[in-house]
Design a protein that fits this description.
The chain contains 12 helices and 10 strands. By secondary structure, the protein is of the alpha/beta class. β2, α2 and β3 form a beta-alpha-beta unit. α2 runs parallel beside α4 and α10 packs antiparallel against α11.
């Protein structure tokens, strides 16, 4: 992973992930390798980890948007890299372990990042690309976008994409996608909960920015508390979840932004968040 990070850092003239700071504390990350259908290669994974990790510690960034160049949002892992790795002495065993460990780290980083992350999908998202969409906190797609976990069609079941998919959509919908490998359209993706909304391609960026700005206007500290608690409680029993979130609510109330927010509400004024 360190080698891949260094390759990315040196490739400043044509970065595989473009970074653009927008107004209101938004950061747009654009997958920028359309020739390879924005595949989650070693370099792409490392670049995303690098960018999200840096943004996690940047107080000026409130929300992260992940988009892509070209007609394919992300086609999953780079099958050419995977095939080339078979030529090694261990038939690719070590490479495959490192690849999936690294990709799993990326997906967990997205979930654990204190900043909300929104997928802006304008095209096809398959396999690990679909996993990337499912891992983001929110997702909006254009009406021409399609999604699939087609690994079963080539003898490679989408087992790691299954983790994010099964945590976002109903089990039977997830199993249908995994077992058939069929594409689903934007409307179906919204229906099963894979994405939040389906809009025209012309309206996509504006819709995502509007949503991101609405979230960015809230207390960043409060949003970070809530995002962490959301994912933590989801893995607990009902009793443990209430015990845990009651403690979170208590600690949240002791924060300066909760005091400011409640006072502002009672005084009918706009709150001034202590986000620095």
């Amino acid at each position: 992973n360190k080698i891949a990070f260094n390759r990315f850092n040196m490739n400043i003239d044509n970065p595989i992930v473009l970074k653009e700071k927008l107004e209101s504390g938004l950061l747009r990350l654009t997958l920028n390798n359309p020739q390879s259908k924005n595949a989650l290669s070693e370099d792409m994974i490392s670049a995303l980890i690098n960018s999200i990790d840096a943004a996690s510690n940047d107080h000026s960034i409130k929300v992260i948007i992940i988009g892509a160049s070209g007609s394919v949002f992300c086609a999953g892992h780079d099958l050419k890299e995977i095939t080339e790795a078979r030529g090694g002495e261990d038939s690719g065993d070590r490479y495959y372990k490192d690849l999936f460990d690294s990709c799993s780290s990326l997906m967990q980083l997205i979930v654990n990042c204190p900043k909300p992350i929104i997928a802006e999908v304008d095209g096809v998202a398959t396999a690990a690309g679909c996993q990337l969409v499912a891992s983001c906190d929110l997702a909006i797609a254009s009406d021409g976008s399609k999604f699939a976990t087609p690994g079963v069609n080539i003898g490679l079941f989408c087992s790691t994409p299954m983790v994010a998919l099964s945590r976002n959509v109903h089990k039977k919908n997830a199993m249908e996608m995994l077992l058939t490998g069929d594409m689903i359209d934007c409307k179906k993706a919204k229906e099963i909960g894979l994405i939040n909304d389906c809009v025209s391609s012309n309206d996509l960026s504006a819709s995502v920015v509007n949503l991101a700005e609405k979230i960015a206007s809230k207390s960043a500290k409060t949003v970070a508390i809530g995002k962490k608690a959301f994912y933590e409680q989801a893995e607990m029993s009902l009793a443990d979840a209430y015990k845990y979130t009651s403690e979170v609510m208590k600690e949240n109330l002791l924060q300066s932004d909760a005091k400011e927010g409640i006072n502002a509400f009672l005084e009918k004024r706009t709150p001034k968040w202590d986000d620095e």
